[in-house]
Write a structure and sequence with these properties.
about 110 residues; 5 helices
């Protein structure tokens, strides 16, 4: 699937992600999808392939591949990966640090 949640609001993104999880875990199907939302991959993927450049990539367990360092380099903006507990469940979020000093320096370089 090519970015199955890209044009959806948060509610519908959640529905699609739950559906993908169910297809994989309950129905035993292999699900492959592309996304620019690393948090989505952390939520539902067992493994991730992160395309860093034409010749450089990382593949393995999503939690090992989708690190702050790799994502910050890929998106050229610092990010923090956080875990949130809600109603006894763990959730992962990738938070871009748009107003950080690293971003300000890049703006002034250009």
């Amino acid at each position: 699937l090519d970015e199955p949640t890209s044009a959806l609001d948060h509610r519908n993104q959640g529905i699609v992600l739950e559906w993908l999880t169910r297809l994989s875990r309950e129905d035993g199907l292999t699900v492959i999808f592309s996304t620019h939302q690393a948090g989505h991959a952390l939520s539902v993927a067992d493994d991730a392939l992160l395309m860093l450049s034409e010749d450089d990539y990382a593949f393995g367990p999503a939690s090992d591949v989708l690190t702050e360092e790799r994502l910050s380099g890929l998106y050229e903006t610092p990010v923090k990966r956080i875990r949130i507990e809600h109603n006894g469940h763990q959730f992962h979020a990738i938070v871009p640090l748009f107003g950080s000093s690293e971003n300000q320096e890049r703006v002034h370089e250009r």
